[in-house]
Design goal:
The chain is mainly α and 205 residues long. It is built from 7 helices and 2 strands, in the order αααβαβααα. It starts with 8 loop residues before the first helix and ends in a 9-residue tail after the last helix. The protein binds zinc ion.
Length: 205
């Protein structure tokens, strides 16, 4: 049975707009998508309120300034001019600075992802995806299905845009921001699972 198989980025990229629309409308896709109700919060609006505290619990905040050379290295693959200003999270207390981005929400998501991988973040009060109270394995499954659904939708919208159709920039940003937050949540879930597993047991992935 291959009912749960998810297509890779490459496979999705080879599909036409019509095929992607059919995939999204298929009963299989529906059955394997946990939800499209990600909660009331808007991941693009005022993202500065969602910044995680950094190491040693200092409050960090979003700023708009010239990123350092080290920061520019962090934003791999993203075109940022060394001379230009960008958004990034910075901690006045300890001097840590996050990856820079032209988009505020991206700067917050990237900073939070770094912190989530070190176990800082609160899954039970996570602003999106209604995760509170679920066991770790269910959180994982829910988030992976949400992330895949978002990726398929994003691929469709990218192709529509390339075909000259009118695709709203804010809608695209929201899809990307939700996907970024799904990655933050997944990092937190995996971090929590690693902590609970006895050290002599090798993790599956
Ligand atoms: Zn700090």
């Amino acid at each position: 049975m291959k009912t749960k198989r998810r297509l890779t980025a490459r496979e999705l990229d080879q599909l036409s707009i019509t095929e992607l629309q059919a995939l999204l409308a298929s009963p299989q896709h529906y059955a394997h998508t946990a939800t499209r109700n990600y909660g009331e919060d808007d991941p693009v609006r005022e993202p500065g309120r969602l910044v995680y505290r950094c190491k040693s619990e200092c409050p960090a905040s979003l700023k708009y300034d010239h990123p350092s050379a080290a920061q520019l290295k962090m934003s791999k693959g993203v075109a940022l001019q060394a001379a230009g200003a960008a958004n990034f999270v910075s901690c006045v207390a300890c001097g840590r600075e996050g990856p820079p981005s032209l988009r505020e929400w991206r700067a917050v998501v990237d900073w939070n992802y770094v912190n989530a991988r070190e176990g800082r973040g609160d899954l039970d009060n996570f602003p999106f995806f209604n995760l509170a109270g679920l066991p770790a394995a269910e959180k994982l499954e829910r988030l992976e299905s949400i992330r895949y659904d978002l990726f398929v939708r994003r691929t469709l919208e990218r192709k529509r845009k390339e075909a000259g159709e009118d695709v709203g920039g804010r809608f695209l940003a929201k899809l990307d921001a939700y996907r970024g937050w799904a990655n933050v949540a997944l990092a937190l879930v995996k971090q929590g699972m690693d902590e609970k597993a006895p050290p002599n047991i090798v993790q599956g992935r």
